[in-house]
Write a sequence for this structure.
């Protein structure tokens, strides 16, 4: 691969022809390491990085018990600064070149996150969390101030460094946001061409709460539609329990559902019917959702997306089999139930598809597929150097199809597999240095 002075890919192909073509240029022979596109993490919480793996609770009590206290500590700008250093180092270390990030409700902490992202060279979409009701006193904001602070951060950072840093208006989720706040978000995001990120349809208690808070809305998704928050630059984390009408609303708006399967398992939220959502044409990407997800590794997240898809598929096979044997239902009724529950649909998602979702899929979700997400001439050089030998128990293995190596990289990734992480051709992390 040849990278030009602006950090773009000038040429990509096998080593030998490139070596003779670039005889007069500095050349680094990385063989037998692999060069792959960098990972795109579409959903991660910076302040939760150090509150991971607190098991035992579902979403709402988990937030109250572990997460809100962790986020409240970011009122101290020094705490926020130091945490940002560790967080971005962690992302680069695992080969993530683009991350879409929630901070806390604190303006200074969000500014500190942007400054650190600017310094280390990572590509990032960052947003200050907005909460103006049903939050602990220490984290609850005034509606007008929340909108004003978010707008100021957007004005300062959205588009910085030729679009490497971008802003996302970040109302946490409908239960902690007033209608006035969410409407304001829709207007501001449109005004600045910025992103909107929030959570949607993750947990059954959360769904009941939203129904009680917004009785006039047709569904959880319809709450966001009414507030003007749904559009092609909207990222909706989770989206597990969506009815057909909601899926239509999301598809037609061009919004993305961010699948976070390790988080969904950890908080006992459910298993997204990933294959079905893909077949219906929904735009999907992957996110680690740290701290409900256990690590910043998108390799492990992609592997778990396959695992979750297989678990759902195999459970559906068992249920379909049991249903076929039920004599209390007639044949037509059995067929109807099978269809309604999609019990016999599809095949599980495989590692190649999951890797695609973690790279080019994420880039598409951000509308950046012409710049990042794959290795192609003219794109910006966001890539990772990985060592396939480090995840292979066999000593040498010549000539196998690359998808088998990729499968091992996802399922067996460990610290040290990523040797270097480059963004716009700049080496932002190197394992040897
Ligand atoms: Zn989240």
């Amino acid at each position: 691969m040849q990278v030009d002075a602006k950090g773009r890919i000038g040429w990509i192909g096998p080593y030998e022809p490139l070596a003779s073509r670039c005889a007069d240029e500095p050349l680094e022979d990385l063989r037998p390491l692999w060069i792959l596109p960098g990972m795109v993490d579409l959903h991660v919480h910076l302040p939760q990085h150090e509150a991971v793996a607190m098991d035992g609770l579902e979403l709402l009590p988990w937030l109250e018990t572990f997460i809100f206290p962790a986020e409240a500590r970011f009122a101290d700008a020094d705490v926020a600064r130091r945490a940002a250093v560790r967080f971005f180092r962690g992302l680069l270390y695992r080969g993530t070149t683009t991350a879409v990030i929630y901070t806390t409700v604190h303006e200074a902490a969000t500014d500190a996150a942007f400054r650190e992202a600017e310094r280390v060279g990572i590509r990032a979409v960052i947003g200050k969390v907005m909460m103006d009701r049903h939050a602990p006193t220490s984290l609850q904001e005034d509606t007008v101030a929340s909108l004003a602070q978010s707008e100021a951060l957007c004005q300062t950072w959205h588009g910085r460094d030729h679009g490497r840093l971008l802003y996302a208006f970040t109302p946490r989720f409908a239960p902690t946001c007033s209608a006035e706040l969410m409407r304001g978000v829709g207007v501001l995001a449109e005004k600045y061409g910025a992103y909107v990120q929030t959570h949607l349809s993750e947990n059954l208690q959360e769904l009941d709460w939203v129904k009680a808070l917004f009785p006039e809305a047709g569904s959880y998704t319809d709450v966001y539609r009414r507030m003007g928050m749904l559009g092609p630059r909207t990222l909706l984390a989770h989206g597990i329990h969506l009815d057909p009408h909601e899926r239509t609303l999301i598809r037609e708006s061009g919004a993305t559902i961010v699948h976070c399967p390790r988080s969904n398992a950890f908080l006992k939220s459910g298993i997204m019917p990933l294959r079905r959502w893909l077949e219906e044409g929904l735009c999907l990407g992957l996110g680690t959702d740290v701290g409900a997800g256990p690590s910043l590794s998108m390799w492990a997240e992609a592997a778990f997306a396959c695992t979750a898809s297989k678990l759902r598929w195999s459970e559906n096979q068992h249920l379909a089999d049991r249903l076929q044997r039920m004599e209390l239902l007639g044949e037509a009724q059995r067929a109807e139930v099978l269809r309604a529950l999609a019990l016999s649909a599809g095949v599980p998602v495989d590692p190649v598809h999951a890797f695609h979702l973690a790279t080019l899929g994420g880039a598409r979700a951000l509308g950046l597929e012409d710049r990042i997400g794959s290795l192609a001439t003219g794109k910006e050089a966001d890539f990772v150097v990985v060592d396939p030998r480090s995840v292979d128990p066999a000593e040498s293995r010549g000539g196998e199809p690359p998808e088998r190596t990729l499968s091992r990289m996802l399922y067996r990734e460990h610290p040290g597999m990523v040797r270097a992480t480059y963004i716009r051709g700049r080496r932002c992390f190197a394992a040897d240095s």
